[in-house]
Amino acid sequence: MVQLHPRGEFSHRSEATTALGADAPKRILRTDAPPPLRFGGMSLYALGSMSNGIKNRSLSAFLLLYYNQVLGLPAPMVGAIIMVLLAIDGLLDPLVGIASDNARTRWGRRHPFMYAAALPYGICFALIWNPPAGLSETGLAIFLTATLFGTRVFDTFFEVPSSALGPELIEDYDRRTTLITVRYFFTFLGGVLLTFVAYRVFLRDSSAGADGLFNAEGYGRYGLLAGALITLVILIATRSTHHRIPWLRDPPPWSGSPLRLLKDTFATLKDRSFWVLTSSGTFAATAGGVLSGLSTYFNVYFWELGTLELSYLVTTGLVASLAALVVAPPLFAKIGKKTGAILLFIAAFLANATPVTLRLLGLLPENGTSLILWLLVSEALLSGAIGLMLNIAFSSMVADLTEDAELRTGRRSEGLLISADNFLKKATSGFGVFISSVVISLVGFPEKARPGEVPEAALRELGMFFIAALGVIYLISILCLLGFRIDRTAHLKNVEALKAKASASEDVTR
């Protein structure tokens, strides 16, 4: 049964078996208050999210360019593979979320999935960047599909249970935002550090010119390092919360009926705030897919940056993540998460669209000048911090739906809520990348092109598409978000109602 401690955290007292099946091993559950999760513990838990940052930043910065311009696969083919696999991965998210919500094992609901993902995740990621020599175009496409699919599957096996663990570790409205902020800081940090290393070490331009981004061997060595780090940070993060397993919750017994499972799933997701929040997030994810699909093309061909200049842009990401870490918690505590997200959407459009707009209007000097570099560094700093704070706001708002869903259904369904939200975001971000790959083809981008070889008309059309797409998508995201209703007051009411319900249940059993 659920027991409420004076500090407001939940624990359990149960004699039920702790895995599906009568002969499963038992887990001893603690009824005293769990040790407080201080900043050091938050950081170790959040360290695992570096794996997601490494994966996302690497795929968005390099995958389309590597397989299209270095290995020679047509851009629409690469984009289609990314889009389809993101949709399949998104479908897998709710299944993993439901499984981890309902698992009853010696190590609780989340940890078995997290441990199991560590090694195969790192191996699959490393293989993406090391295709066998001599593959045909079809063979290369199949290899990319297989390794990218494995990477996304095992990322889901870690990321969904790990994210779902967060709301259970901290229940407080504002401290939960801090925990999610630290998690996103490490996500951003992982992507920034590894991308910086890629530009400065593995893809560094030679003295002969800007050829580092077209060095296939450099991508291979980078993939091996990144894959090893992914495995390492997952193991450290999972182990860091292992000692808290006795205080983590077991799910209510499940009848085993698929119909009951389907009914519970629909009951959890039957919430207006969930759907308006998810709708807003899916459109934002589409914009993110457009940004990730086109960012390297803009940097290399539109702005004609070398890997040294690109490493400067990446370095700003570290400053941006630190800024978000400091600004996000007090900002959302002051003006609320929904209001903050709306203002950040407006700021995101202005930050991303301004440099391209100035170039199209002829208000900037030629590429290669210091003014261009400083403008792009400023844009990267602003858009990086804004994007990170938007992710924090959305993740925190999804977490705040947990108590609302528990009041309606009687079940803790963090994994389902997070994974269902992820499903639509992944599918639409893949669609955004696919759109970008199609546009690259339609505007006349040649394959295996070098900076300065792309027609001016193609670059102009690319810039116009970029501005229009971002403006429309961000506007729709804002309109959707207006319907979200879980603010601080509503969250506190839900928490108090759960406390009263738990106390009443405890009184009945005495």
Strand-helix topology:
Blueprint: E1 2-4, E2 10-12, H1 39-47, H2 50-70, H3 75-102, H4 111-128, H5 137-169, H6 173-202, H7 216-240, H8 258-269, H9 272-302, H10 307-335, H11 337-360, H12 370-409, H13 414-442, H14 456-481, H15 488-509
Antiparallel strand pairs: 1-2
Helix pairs in contact: 1-6, 1-7, 2-6, 2-7, 2-9, 3-5, 3-13, 4-5, 4-7, 5-13, 6-7, 6-10, 6-12, 8-12, 9-12, 9-13, 9-14, 10-11, 10-12, 11-12, 11-14, 12-13, 12-15
Could you describe the 3D structure shown?
By secondary structure, the protein is an all-alpha fold. The protein is 74% helix and 1% strand. The chain is built from 15 helices and two strands. It has a two-stranded antiparallel sheet. The longest helix is centred in the C-terminal third of the chain and has 40 residues, at 370-409. The model is unreliable at 1-25 (pLDDT under 50).
